[in-house]
Amino acid sequence: MVWQIPENGLTLSLTEPVVILEGHSKRVGIVAWHPTARNVLLSAGCDNTIIIWNVGTGEALLNLDDIHSDMIYNVSWNRNGSLICTASKDKKVRVIDPRKQEIVAEKEKAHEGARPMRAIFLADGNVFTTGFSRMSERQLALWNPKNMEEPIALHEMDTSNGVLLPFYDPDTSIIYLCGKGDSSIRYFEITDESPYVHYLNTFSSKEPQRGMGYMPKRGLDVNKCEIARFFKLHERKCEPIIMTVPRKSDLFQDDLYPDTAGPEAALEAEEWFEGRNADPLLISLKHGYIPGKNRDLKVVKKNILDSKPTANKKCDLISVPKKTADAAGVQNEAKLDEILKEIKSIKDTICNQDERISKLEQQMAKIAA
After folding, report:
1. Please, are residues 139 and 111 in contact by the beta-carbon 8 Å criterion?
2. With helix as H, strand as E and coil as C, how does the chain read?
3. Which pLDDT score, from 0 to 100, does residue 317 have?
4. Is the Cβ–Cβ distance between 140 and 150 less than 8 Å?
5. What pLDDT score was predicted for residue 9?
6. pLDDT at 325
7. What strand order describes the sheet that includes 138-143?
8. Per-block mean pLDDT, blocks of 10 residues, the chain (369 long)
């Protein structure tokens, strides 16, 4: 199910999805939006099948059902969305071209242990994996898809049995590893020089994590030099964990915040299915991220009989009219930015006043006690 979050967040519980995508025969455990094409969604289920959808039409356009013979642990798009990599229960890491529906590279027994692996693409095209050795030690490894015989780097960490979940920041080349059941987050920097994967530090807490979420870069507070924000899942609560780089200067720290991937799509779904690629459209965080006008997802059911399908191209079955330029919208863009900045300023003021009221109430409580 695909849900549309309203512009200013939820005020009521959502009960109606925008679209329901039906095609898997068993439970779906993985969903991942395409990094640069609008409304392209990948899903993978316990039927060992990967389906790539055009959410704008509600149609399944690519069905990779004969590549995996065992459970898929995770799927990751590369930087421009031309390839995906997967980790599977059969101990293989595969690099796949989804539009050609073929395996580009694969490594058997990337990690020899029986416990689950994870594999993610890095910005330079290399693949980073986590898994277990034959002796049940947790491992991390770096691979070049053009030659997967031997890893670029392989490190053994400890003998804990929690699966290591990798979260990657392409702007700073830092990988954060969160182990299920651990109470710590380790982080590493990926570089071009040996040992390639450099240990930086460990964040430790008292409570173990049941799961972890990761805030996109444009949601961070640049004024506080925040470089990562996690959402740690406990049994009954969700706790934000904020990582900052202390700086004495109040100026914008451009070394911490290079231009980052913005929310706008570089391609339409149809262009990607036809074979085009594009890198993410980058935005500056210098003035803090101000959301643009929210584009509501409208699902268009196209009559397949209107178009003439060619022999082997599934993607030709669906075509959606190109969006027309909205002249009035362009004229109002500057005004909209101005209003959004003013709203942000008012919200900041309200937050500050809330904090002040809370402190005064605490003081009153102490005096009363």
Report:
1. yes
2. CECCCCCCCCCCCCCCCCECCCCCCCCEEEEEECCCECCEEEEEECCCCEEEEECCCCEEEEEECCCCCCCEEEEEECCCCCCEEEEECCCCEEEEECCCCEEEEEECCCCCCCCCCEEEECCCCCEEEEEECCCCCEEEEEEECCECCCCCEEEECCCCCCCEEEEEECCCCEEEEEECCCCEEEEEEECCCCCCEEEEEEEECCCCCCEEEECCHHHCCHHHCEEEEEEEECCCCEEEEEEECCCCCCCCCCCCCCCEECCCCCECHHHHHCCCCCCCCEECCCCCCCCCCCCCCCCCCCCHHHCCCCCCCHHHHCCCCCCCCCHHHHHHHHHHHHHHHHHHHHHHHHHHHHHHHHHHHHHHHHHHC
3. 35
4. no
5. 86
6. 43
7. 118-121, 127-132, 138-143, 153-156
8. 89 93 96 97 97 95 95 97 97 97 96 95 97 95 96 93 95 95 95 94 93 94 94 94 91 92 95 96 86 69 49 39 46 73 82 84 82
Domain residue limits, the chain: 28-283
Model pTM score: 0.78
User: Amino acid letter at 219?
Assistant: G
pLDDT of residue 304: 43
Strand 197-204 with 184-190, pairing? antiparallel
Both structure tokens of 88: 């599977």
Domain 28-283 has CATH 2.130.10.10: yes
Residue with tokens 């642990």, as numbered in its chain: 73
